[in-house]
Amino acid sequence: MSRPQFARETSTHGEFVRQPNRFTDRITADGTSGWPAEPGRYRLVVSLACPWAHRSVIARRLLGLEDAISLAVVDPIRDERGWRFTLDPDDRDPVLGIGFLAEAYRAADPGFTGRVTVPSLVDTRSGRVVTNDYPRITLDLSTQWRAWHREGAPELYPEHLRAEIDAVNADVFRDVNNGVYRCGFATSQEAYESAYQALFARLDALSERLAHQRYLVGDTITEADVRLFTTLVRFDAVYHGHFKCNRQKLTEMPVLWAYARDLFQTPGFGDTVDFDHIKRHYYATHEQLNPNRVVPVGPDLGGWHAPHGREALGGRPFGDGTPPA
């Protein structure tokens, strides 16, 4: 048997078990965490290929935090040293002055030996990673950075809906967001089939839910929609073939396809998608799954701009606010 793509994160039964987030400090409005929310102090490091990082890019854009939190984009091709800043002059991030995100990890923990992940928020003063806790990052952008939200910014995590959002997010993470990875990186037939069945059972349940309402929770876009979108937008380009999630393509699931197009055509969603980065990352860095590193030409992306008809279900993208300029 060949070595698994992520050996440290593969169980003895062939299941992919995602590593926990190493850095879980929080940036808070009152600064009691030791990391006060301050415009210009933190740099958000992302890969445009990564769905976990894409969440934070969308939230930052929707909330209008572009001037408060700067953005660093790594090369979509991650080598054995991790995420690289080769898209910048001299292959170094112009603000942090480093060539690899791993350097900021070691500044925070010299003994760190795990997998370096995005998104990461890095303190520009010390060069240390504050957090790579991707579920918490977007929630804190909504709740701890309110003083710097744009006028009319949406309520992505409204207090009266948080319990429902959290419950939906837990199901979506387990079966869909992480479920596609559990399919793709399974090293036993049993582990793969278990993940596959859970994935499509959840997609069927989400289709039924969304057949009667425009968004996952409430009548406006919330954190729950952001989290589901980043998996759906990658589904046909990557997960259907590369990760063997091939019962159906997204374009063959009418409700989810219309829902995904609705979000894609909303400012802050589709304009933050980079299909080139997405495809090059997955097909060129998972050598066990794609040893020749050939990147598919398709699928046809034209359908993302087709009318979706979701307005008939009611609901408004940004509630009483306005879309980002």
Automatic annotation (TrEMBL):
Q: Where is this site: Lowers pKa of active site Cys?
A: 239, 282
**Which GO cellular component terms are attached?**
cytoplasm
Pfam families with a match to the protein in the record = GST_C_2, GST_N_2
**Superkingdom assignment:** Bacteria
- InterPro entries per UniProt: Glutathione-S-Trfase_C-like, Glutathione-S-Trfase_C_sf, Glutathione_S-Trfase, Glutathione_S-Trfase_N, GST_Omega-like_C, GST_Omega/GSH, Thioredoxin-like_sf
The protein's matches in PANTHER family, at most eight in alphabetical order, are given as:
GLUTATHIONE S-TRANSFERASE OMEGA-LIKE 1-RELATED (PTHR32419:SF6), GLUTATHIONYL-HYDROQUINONE REDUCTASE (PTHR32419)
**Protein name as annotated:** Putative glutathione S-transferase
